[in-house]
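User: structure tokens for this one?
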Amino acid sequence: MISPCSPEEPPAAPQTPVPQAPITPLPPPPQASLQAPIPPPPLPPPPSVKGLAPPHVFGLEKSQLLKEALEKAGPVPSSRDDVKRLLKLHKDRFRSDLQWILFCADLPSLIQEGPQCGLVALWMAGTLLAPPSGVPLEKLVQVAMERGYTAQGEMFSVADMGKLAQEALGCQVEHLCGGLGGPNRARVLQHLVSGHPLLIPYDEDFNHEPCQRKGHKAHWAVSAGVLLGVQAVPSSGYAEDPELPGLFHPAPSTLHQPPSLPEDGSPGAVYLLSKQGKSWHYQLWDYDQVRDSNLQLTDFSPSRATDGRAYVVPAGGVQAGLCGQALLLTPQDFSR
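Assistant:
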């Protein structure tokens, strides 16, 4: 199911005690005095801490815990810096016999409140499809409820998600069925190389990565980037990263030759750069891991079936609504 996803809970940073001004003890009252002892003066307020205001992250207005964690964590990195951090963290996974090409559109982060993971993923995707101001999450929720697609933010139907995207974002929608492998694989990779978003339902593990729980941990993510491990980088239109040798980016404002896309069973490798509503960071997922998780979404979570809440589930259940399906979204004026 699309879980009523509670945001990730970063470990609490140790608190630094605030120095207090020393208190000078008052002299004892005269023995002959009949007046009550004078109370000590109140403690001075703690000194103000000067520094940069914490950055705004959408969705934290109602979550004091996440807001406090963000303030302790410091500024949220830019998308480019966050991707660079991620690649450095996982560089040991990249085979030295391959060269790597990164295609990645700039996605904002949005932390979900309750079971809104699908709508949050759609909002993030919408920033690449709609005007720069985007479409507010509140509008997506309102339209989804008015059309009967959701009861409280959950989305169990890829078809309904596609109709919502068309109506609320005014974009083109391609509804993929049959999984992310086979003939759909090349279609998905070409879509991501072109800089357009992919919406994917999958089972979410404890670290937000794809797993296989038969749909009991169903969740939504948006991917707007892909890391390709190829035998050779095309000769024109690409520049090597100055910090990560062997990693290439399409040169800005330059026509670049499309790379040969790694096929199933080929010596190449494919990773998706994705975001979802429980973290403001990009994540790097093996393509086959995402494919396999998406292809086994069959059952409604037993814990959700007995939690007393109402959910909108299509005829045929989770398997009919989510299993082996995804959405390719493109701007309305895009020519295929």
